[in-house]
Automatic annotation (TrEMBL), chain A:
Residues 1-26 are annotated as: Disordered. GO terms for molecular function: ATP binding. This is ATP-binding cassette domain-containing protein. It comes from the Bacteria. Signal peptide: none annotated. Keywords: ATP-binding, Nucleotide-binding. It holds the Pfam family ABC_tran. CDD domains: ABC_Iron-Siderophores_B12_Hemin. It comes from Isoptericola peretonis.
Amino acid sequence: MSADTRTPDDVAPATEARSAAGPGGLDAARVSWSTAGRLILDGVDVTAPAGAVSGLLGPNGSGKSTLLRVLAGVQPPSSGDAAPGHPASVVFAGADLLAAPRRRRARTLAFVEQEASTDLPVTVLDAVLLGRIPHRSLLAGDSADDRAAARRALDRVGMADYADRELTTLSGGERQRVHMARALAQEPALILLDEPTNHLDIAAQLDALRVLRDLADRGVTVLAALHDLQLAAQHCDHVVLLSGGRVVAAGDVRDVLVPEVLDPVYGVRTEVLTHPRTGRPVLTFAPRG
Amino acid sequence: MTTTRSAPPAARSGEATARPAVRRGAAWWLPASVVVLVATVLVTVTIGPAELSVADVWRSVATHLGLGGALGLEPLGALPDGMVWELRLPRVLTAAAVGAGLALCGVVMQSLTRNPLADPYLLGLSSGASLGAVLVLVAGLTVLLPVAAFAGAVAALVAALALAGAIGTITPTRTVLAGLAVSQLAAAATSFVIFWAATGDSYREILSWLMGSVAGATWTSVAITGVAVLVLGTLLASTGSILDAFTFGDTAAAALGVPVARVRWLLLVGVALLTGALVSQSGSIGFVGLILPHAVRMLTGARHRLLLPLSALCGASFLVWADTLARTVFAPREVPVGIVTAAVGAPVFAFLLWRGRRIA
């Protein structure tokens, strides 16, 4: 393991964590969440550098979705037992997101949840226009500027020609890109996504990840929970590995996605190859024993 | 970003261009439905056993509004004038206010609970109101009926919200389930009271009230329902952007900066007070609040800024016509308007469903 791979045992000082995230990135510390006496998140520290695609990894039930919901401010953190008197902090670009007024937070941070669906007959453009709500008075309708922003967002995800289609007539991959466009219409500096590639075929997965890469290249901070380690290895710059509500390791993909880290967490035998063209890690898995 | 996948498949492009044609007409829906409502009121007032022309109605109304002198109109005779001003006009206006309010409440409830089966009575309001009404009817205190119905509706609301709150945060599912529990309890109590105490005349009165009717509407009814719809209804109708934010559920709404829990409380209470005021005057008229929002949505799409006011206007016209049928089809006998709303509305809704299937 390299120096910037952190384990729960050697807790990095806050300053070091901040430098890892860079001046504009996301830096959350001591995030805990419990329900019905069960601790789902246990004092999680997580950083996501600005202008990079960060992956949030971990087995089922490791707390990925919960962590994203707390970071997105749609679920308040519980007071952690680990450090009484030191409440959770979620800092982005120097501003405290947990303390920010909701609407201001919604202009900085967009959250693409898993499987957002509706039975209502909404068009693609209408769905994307929802992302403009934080930017206008609640009594006002959408302006020409809002519609222009929504069309720009659709263009960025390659769905501009679908604006007038009804959402329910789209494929899963197309719908996922519409949800991303809805988040982009919020014009966020930080975007959190919960399993954006779930249930998508491989071409649609690559489309979704290309959108994230495009965003990072424009300076947006991207943090996506991903199920597929293989995808994370190919597309993420920085990864955070959760297990049992704690951070097991965090850092560059080449440092975290190694057998010594993955094998105990997933209970498998991992082999890491190197992609001949990109030089990125390619993972293969075998059952343990 | 241009990708080869961004062009819609050719086979689908036909329906993609066919669909917005409906939406482009959206700007006309509101003015058109205002015209329809005004025409509905003016025409239905003239319909009835004693034939009155539209001109007679205008004469009566203008006279009462103090315009008779300015327009140089002859006042109408006392009998036809009373028929317009004291019987038909209050009845038509009450039906319009009740229809508008119920349709509006239906839209809000369906959006807030994300449940297509939600209607204004979801929180046990109609059962609560019925219990209050039946109690005073069997006691022979008919004068107190509106007060008792309103009190029953509010009591049911308080019980449902308290129950939902006691389980935890007020979520859509908990709200629906708590409303169901309160509703069933109140319905059982109502049945018991009817079974135990109702005799001869009160049976008929109770039945007519339970089915919903605006037959007894007076100018007081117009004032109560009208003010409720203008004040609470205008507030509810202005929540379009907030309800839009709930399209993909609570989490999405919260991520868009909407204070979900507070908004839900406020809107539920607003709906309940408005419904309570309407039910106190008309009894629980079914169907309007459940089906009308769906019908309007099928015509104009799901955007609440148009859906809310349009549902209110269409609900008003719909209930006025339904009530006109209720008092004329079997004249001189009347049927409760709740029977007509279901008998007319259900086939219309079935047709819209069938038509919508081919489009979507």
